[in-house]
Amino acid sequence: MMTMKNKVLFACLTIWVLCVSCEKDNIIPIYGQQEEGKEISMGDSLNQPPHWRVLSPYMYPYTMSAIVVIPDSLAGVYKSSDELAVFMDETCRGVAEHIDNEGVGYRWFIVIYGSEDRENLRFKYYSSAKNSYYRSKDFLLFETNSRFGSVDNPKCLSFQFLN
Questions:
Q1: Using CA atoms, how far apart are residues 94 and 110, in angstroms rounded to an integer?
Q2: Residue 1: strand, helix, or coil
Q3: 38 CB contacts (<8 Å, ≥6 apart)?
Q4: DSSP for 54-121?
Q5: Whose C-alpha in 20, 111, 131, 161 is 20 to 30 A from the C-alpha of 125?
Q6: Which residue, among 82, 33, 66, has the nearest Cα to 155 in the 3D structure?
Q7: Digits of tens for pLDDT over the chain (163 positions)?
Q8: Using the 8-state DSSP alphabet, how is residue 21 labeled?
């Protein structure tokens, strides 16, 4: 039999799990299959944005943050439907938010989830204006509680064309 205290704790935990596992913008892709934590295949759906998301972020015990900008060649054609995310292999570990910081310009802010230090991460970018996917040329090593870039000094990512 559950006590009132246990019922309240259970209800709070259930609400928290539902909140942290919500999808970005509550969008459920209508193409391809997506396994737990995996990115959506770009296969036959190159004409649609990917809607990347981190599934079950509560499963990752550690985080780090990143504040980045994209190269001028991509920033010049930015649309609100563009997406930037961080991956370990094909598992999405963070989805960026594009925010205008008055006086300093646009930045991408990302909370990156990890299981352990020294995991190799890569950024992926989808440009809706160019209908193209890009992957960062360099890896980022996951370091618990660290910060990659800052508002005043964001890291500029270098990308290679994927399609």
A1: 6
A2: coil
A3: 90, 91, 92
A4: -S-GGG--EEEEEEEE--HHHHTT--TT-EEEEEETTEEEEE-EEEEETTTEEEEEEEEEESSTT-EE
A5: 20
A6: 66
A7: 445 444 444 443 334 333 333 333 332 232 233 344 444 444 345 567 899 999 999 999 999 999 999 999 999 999 999 999 999 999 999 999 999 888 888 999 999 999 999 999 999 999 999 999 999 999 999 999 999 999 999 999 999 998 7
A8: T
